[in-house]
């Protein structure tokens, strides 16, 4: 059990024993300043208010109901009724060796819908956020022991495939290699769109292709399938480059739900949830009433019978509940789709597609912006391709590494540049609160100072160099001792790893882990300044203790970065 849970359990029980209502909680938080102790309990005030009691008196009663003397050296009542908890240093030191071993959780089945690009075009930077953040959360959940099912809900269906197939069929008629023709999907899409807009005959043929595709014409399906395979291959190249854990097995495309859509509509109709409006089938739900009293409907079927994005998402929810038996479904999708998800979730609940026991969570993220504060674009205003961005990251990292370590062999510099460059791109995204927009800056993300991947990778490499130097010294045996204040602060921080993992798994916010690792590295640097390790006059058992602290720090950095999908280096 992590420290926070332990204190929460004991103090919440004490709070209730002191007469507070059963729903009250001690609300334990790490203290923000050392003089407030290591942890604070903030829940007494709210309980006192409910009991119409003086909060400091209630706090005193709480302390009578519990004995924390095995773990805390002092607990004081502060301000209006906070409890400041000063933990025992010996207790911290003894708890340390197990700091990256997680507490057992009740394993849940968690479906994570992420990356999910549209296959008509090349993956662009907009899908980068979903891919990177989703993959980090997936890793954390698996590390906690949950059963995670990745779902790459790629867009592979819809009217734009008509024009793409019509254009592709023409190129095929001229001969040539398909994968060559589709080497640049972005250009291919542009050409098709140009023809579609300029040539009415081509537009007509495009529409015929849509009808043929949707009615299951074998030739048309075969062509479509080839297109999808090549487009998916482009995605896989990007996943590999990024070190993202998605594979072909995780693809559950929009088209996979095709056969369920008619049933979704008829079930919604039977439940009385749909209304016809201008020929379309719509759900008007009171929850989505606007200020003027009108309701924003969710359109389920278009005039003429076509299905929509929402129809597929409803089918997917039913599948995730009935077949995958999910306890939680997490959607890592742009915040601009919030209304869509709120409407889909609400309708799914009403229709009984999603039981109350299955939680549906839109893990929304903001837009990636350029340094000018506008959506991230190429210099000429086009969308930035993911592949180009990743190539540039590695090139820039290569220049930095070569300037820093000109003596390293070319191949080693390339290898370092890959890990640093990709790590920097991922970390700069992961370290921001995902719900806000974020500014993409090469200079900031590749800096060796501040809250960046290179800084953390460098901190790790630096600890490895301590071990290389320590190799020749007499090491000695000792349990961990936290003698200096910087040592104690590092020890406490190490013990908080567990709590952070817990919160990332719950909230899907990897920036908590980033901030934690950054602070951990800072505590290590302060410890390393204040507490000599290798100096000759350091007694062997103190050296042994400090080397263990260094080892735990390195392990925690490595584990934490690997959960973010970022590699470390032995030297850099
Ligand atoms: N393909 C969509 C897009 O690029 C994202 C899909 C997200 N997942 C979902 N179940 N709707 O905008």
Automatic annotation (TrEMBL):
InterPro entries: aa-tRNA-synth_I_CS, Arg-tRNA-ligase, Arg-tRNA-synth_N, Arg-tRNA-synth_N_sf, ArgRS_core, DALR_anticod-bd, Rossmann-like_a/b/a_fold, tRNAsynth_Ia_anticodon-bd
GO MF assignments: arginine-tRNA ligase activity; ATP binding
Enzyme class at the top of the EC tree: ligase
Entries under CDD domains matching the protein: Anticodon_Ia_Arg (cd07956), ArgRS_core (cd00671)
One Pfam family matching this protein: tRNA-synt_1d
Residue ranges annotated for the DALR anticodon binding domain, each copy included: 456-572
Domain of life: Bacteria
Official protein name in the record: Arginine--tRNA ligase
Organism (species): Thiothrix eikelboomii
């Amino acid at each position: 059990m992590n420290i926070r849970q332990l204190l929460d359990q004991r103090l919440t029980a004490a709070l209730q024993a002191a007469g507070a209502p059963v729903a009250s909680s001690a609300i334990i938080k790490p203290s923000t300043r050392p003089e407030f102790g290591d942890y604070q309990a903030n829940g007494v005030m709210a309980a006192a208010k409910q009991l119409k009691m003086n909060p400091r008196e209630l706090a005193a009663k709480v302390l009578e109901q519990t004995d924390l003397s095995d773990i805390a050296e002092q607990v004081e009542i502060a301000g209006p009724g906070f409890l400041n908890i000063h933990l025992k240093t010996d207790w911290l030191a003894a708890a340390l060796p197990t700091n990256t071993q997680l507490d057992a959780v009740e394993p849940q089945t968690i479906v994570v819908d992420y990356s999910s690009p549209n296959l008509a075009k090349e993956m662009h930077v907009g899908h980068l956020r979903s891919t990177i953040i989703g993959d980090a959360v997936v890793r954390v959940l698996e590390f906690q022991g949950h059963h995670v099912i990745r779902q790459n809900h790629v867009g592979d269906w819809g009217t734009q495939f008509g024009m793409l197939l019509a254009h592709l069929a023409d190129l095929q008629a001229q001969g040539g290699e398909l994968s060559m023709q589709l080497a640049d999907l972005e250009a291919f899409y542009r050409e098709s769109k140009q023809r579609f807009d300029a040539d009415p005959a081509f537009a007509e043929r495009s529409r015929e292709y849509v009808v043929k595709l949707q009615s299951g014409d074998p030739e048309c399906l075969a062509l479509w399938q080839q297109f999808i395979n090549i487009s998916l291959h482009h995605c896989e190249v990007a996943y590999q480059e990024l070190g993202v854990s998605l594979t072909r097995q995780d693809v559950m495309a929009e088209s996979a739900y095709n056969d369920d859509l008619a049933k979704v509509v008829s079930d919604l109709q039977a439940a009385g949830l749909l209304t016809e409006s201008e020929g379309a089938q719509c759900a008007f739900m009171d929850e989505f009433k606007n200020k003027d009293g009108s309701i924003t409907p969710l359109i389920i079927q278009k005039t003429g019978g076509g299905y929509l994005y929402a129809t597929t998402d409803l089918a997917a929810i039913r599948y995730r509940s009935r077949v995958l038996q999910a306890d939680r479904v997490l959607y890592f999708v742009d915040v601009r789709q919030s209304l869509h998800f709120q409407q889909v979730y609400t309708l799914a609940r009403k229709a009984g597609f999603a039981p109350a026991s299955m939680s549906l969570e839109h893990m929304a993220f903001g837009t990636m912006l350029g340094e000018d504060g506008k959506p991230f674009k190429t210099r000429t205003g086009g969308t930035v391709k993911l592949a180009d961005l990743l190539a540039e990251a590695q090139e820039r990292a290569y220049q930095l590494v070569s300037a820093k370590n000109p003596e390293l062999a070319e191949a080693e510099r390339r290898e370092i540049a890959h890990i640093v460059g990709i790590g920097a791109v991922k970390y700069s995204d992961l370290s921001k609160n995902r719900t806000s927009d974020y500014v993409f800056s090469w200079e900031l993300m590749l800096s060796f100072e501040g809250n960046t991947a290179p800084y953390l990778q460098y901190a790790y490499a630096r600890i490895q160099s301590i071990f290389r130097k320590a190799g020749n010294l007499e090491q000695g045996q000792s349990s961990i001792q936290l003698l200096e204040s910087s040592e104690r602060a590092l020890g406490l921080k190490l013990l908080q790893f567990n709590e952070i993992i817990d919160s990332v798994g719950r909230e899907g916010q990897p920036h908590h882990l980033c901030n934690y690792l950054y602070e951990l590295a800072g505590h290590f640097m302060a410890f390393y300044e204040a507490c000599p390790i290798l100096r000759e006059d350091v007694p062997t058992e103190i050296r042994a203790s400090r080397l263990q602290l260094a080892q735990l720090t390195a392990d925690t950095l490595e584990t934490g970065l690997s959960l973010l999908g970022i590699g470390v280096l032995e030297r850099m």
